[in-house]
Structures are given as C-alpha cells and as structure tokens.
Amino acid sequence: MPVNSDKFFMWKYLFLICSIISIIAGIFVTPDLLISLGPMRQTLTSSVDSIRSLAHLELSIYRGSCLIISIAFLMLSLKGKEIWNATWLSPIHKHNLRETDRHLGIMTGWNFSLTTIFCCYIGVIIYMTVISRFLSDPLLKIINNEDGIIEYLSAAIFLICSISSCILSFKLSGQTSRIFMLRLFAVVFFLMFGEEISWGQRIFEVKTLEVMKKINVQGENNIHNLLGYVSDHLFIAGFFVYGVIFPVLANRILFLRKFFDFIGLPIASLGLAVGCFMISSTHDWTFYLVFEKVKYLQMAEMRELLSSVAFLLLICESWLLIEKRSPRRGRDQTYK
Fold this sequence. Notes:
Elements: H1 5-28, H2 31-37, H3 41-44, H4 49-84, H5 90-93, H6 101-105, H7 112-129, H8 137-144, H9 149-171, H10 176-196, H11 210-215, H12 230-252, H13 254-263, H14 270-280, H15 284-287, H16 299-319
Helix pairs in contact: 1-4, 7-14, 7-16, 9-10, 9-16, 12-13, 12-14, 14-16
C-alpha cells in the first residue's frame, strides 16, 4: 500500500520529534531525579546492596533502551517511506480487520470498562479516607497486610482471567493467532495468580526453600522477587505500554490497529485505556501526596488489585468478538 508523499511528510517530522524526545528522556532521567520525585526511591536508596545495584542496572538498561528507540525513530524519519512500502509488510496492509458491531460499539472513550474502573477507584478512595478509620488494628492487618484480603482478591481475579481466556480461546474459530494469544494469556494469568500468593506457601504452610531465602528479597517461594523489584518495575512499565499506549496508537493509526489484529493481540478500548492510566498513576509517592497514609497498606497491592480488574475487563471486551457473523471487511476507519 504506497503512502502519499504529502502525508508522509508529516510523519517524517513526527518521528524526528519522537527521536529527540526519546534521547532527552534517556539523558535527563537520573537516579537523583527519580529519588527526588519518588519513582524507584525505595530501591535506589535501599540498604541492601544487591537491590540498590539492580536498581542502577535497571536505570542503565532504560537509558540504553531510550537510545535504541531514538535511533529507531530516526531511521523511520529517514527511511520510513521505503520501510512502509516493503513487501514483508504487505500481509499487514492487506489484512482485513476481524471486528464485530458490538465490539466496535464499546471501543469508545466512556464505556462500561471506564465506569467500572472509575467506581473501583472511588471505592479505594472511600476505603482509605473513611472506612479504614473505623476499622480495628487487627482487621486492618487482615485486609491490608501481605497475604491479606486485598492480595487474595487480586489472585482470585487473575485466576478468573486465566479461566476466561482459556474458555474464550475455545469459542473462537478461524482466528489462529488470536486463539494462540488468548491461550498464552491464560498461562500468563495463571502464573500471576500463583505468584501473587507465592503458590500457596502460607495457605499450605510450606516453609521457604533455603535457596529462596538467600536470593528472594521477601524470603518467599516465588519467582518475581528473585531479582529485587525488577519484576514489579517491568510489570508497571508493561501495564502502561500495553494498557495505555497501545490502545491510543491503535485508535489513531490504522496500520498498528491491523498489526495488533493480525497477531491476535487483544487491545483495550479507549475507555479502558483511560482506566489503565488511572491505575498506572497509583503509587505511594502519588497517592499519599493527597491522601493520608493507611496503616499496613501499600499502594502496590492496591494497584495490583486494580490491574487485575482491568485485565478482567479486557477479557470481557474480547468476548464481544465471538459474535457469529462474517468478518467485517473494509472497515478501515478508526474507532469513533
């Protein structure tokens, strides 16, 4: 699909601007800046040498990634037209979007997904500012502590996500890439369920393995705490990119919308993307600037709970793709 020269002229300079922004983000994001603002303050100032070293390594990788991204955008600015017209991209250009009327109907700015996230967010604020004040100390421990109600509720929702993804994959037909992706999601959600409760370590009163005591920062039988808090940081970044950036790009750029559909990757609606942005902004260093700190509560646990709800809503949106009708051909407009 040849691109119009006048139209590409605009994209050329947009890519150049993105290249400059990427390199600036890599240069000016320093340990001192992150410590002063709040992100990664706990890990960058940790008294544990291994955690502090891994945090600095994370930052080095981030800055290197910014350089690579900057070079990629620069290449798109210089050679974008040739890349766009490359034959290996033709399957995506020719791909017919597999959409249904009811799925398109919810790909809007304000929908059921955003309403649900908004209500959950209001519930969190009410709990923190009102309800928690009337709860006894032992009850607050049961709700807020590690292995508390919040954590087990997150795990339960991840398990529901896993089961729902698996069931949905068997209900779809003729969409090999989407079926594969949903089954992959089912496996990932199940792993998240198990990791959230350390694979039932405290439920079944299993002792922490000696090797885990030495390399796991929380002394638990799980994988995501083996490398300090790297996994948590990757989850936060990945959730933002997948839940916020991808939906916005898919809504505005038809090629990316076709690409995501081509590989079968479920993409959130704009409403859910707004909700994911709200969730991504939920941190100790943001929330506690406005609200009083709640005893025993870490906003990381609340963010994981809200994230599990967002993933469940994503699967619910994907269920709307199983309407029994032929694929919509020629629907190349962006979401209204």
